[in-house]
Amino acid sequence: MKSYVFISGAAGGLGKAFAAECASRGWNLFLTDVSAGDLSILTSGLVRLYNVEIIYYPCNLTDPASRDELWKIIQQRNLRFHFLINVAGVDFEGPFIERTSAELGTIIRLNIESTVDMTSRALHFRDKTRMLRIINVSSLAGYYPMPVKAIYAASKRFLLDFSLALHHELAESGVTVTVLCPAGMPTTPSAISGIFAQGFMGRITTKNVGYVAAKTIDRALSGRMVYIPGVINRILRFLGGTVPPSLVAYFIGKRWLKIRHKYNGEILKGV
Fold it and tell me: How far is CA 170 from CA 21, 112, 259, in A?
């Protein structure tokens, strides 16, 4: 029986990097994202480069019915997985009061609900002849209460705690869970704008997606629970842990407010 690496959010910047890294290691892939066209282009390129088997199926991970259909296809094809990489996530950056209920709900459904659901289902379709490695993509933001990114940061905190707890819970059943907590990554125009807006600090904390994907997989294979890419980011995490959360929130809020005023709010909308 063939065994696959399952990657959600595969057509995004980090998802593509994970897919390329896994394919370069000779692993067969099962990819999902909302756009069939993007998945088709990605699949064609990776198959041509690495000659691995790749199956893709589009899915709106915020929709329970769409997720049900995805797993129905997986069951029909009798697919099994030795790696699950939950990349799919979203943020609508800006003050909480300016976000619509639809935007807030989408963050919660994609970042939290779908990750939990995909993880739960994948455990029932694991390749039992191999160790199952799970990677959940959190964020350095998950360590802090963050004004202007309140729901996003809180959702990433959930993924951090969920992953750490699950790693220990499943340790004796041949499953490891690694949580990735990156800072900035140049994955989209809005992400690049956000990095640019943060100036020097944005630049020194940013890591290339290819580097992050490769190092994260290495950490997952070694059974590491948490990976924060970049020495500077690990230092910031350590220093942040020595400051009361209320002060962290205050200083982060002041910083984002300064950036927002500088760019008249546009940078936080991804313009």
Answer: 26, 19, 42
Q: What is the pLDDT of residues 221-244, one digit of tens each?
A: 999 999 999 878 888 788 777 878
What pLDDT score was predicted for residue 196?
Answer: 44
Residue 37 CA to residue 78 CA, distance in Å, equals 24
For 3-269, CATH number?
3.40.50.720
In whole angstroms, what separates CA 168 from the centre of its chain? 20
What residue segments make up the domains of the chain, in order of their start?
3-269
DSSP states along 137-161: E--GGGGS--TTSHHHHHHHHHHHH
Strands (E), the chain: 3-8, 28-32, 54-56, 80-86, 132-137, 175-180, 226-227
CA-closest candidate to residue 236, choices 210, 211, 188, 201: 201
Cβ atoms 27, 5 nearer than 8 A: yes
pTM over 0.90: no
What are the tokens at 8? 């959600």
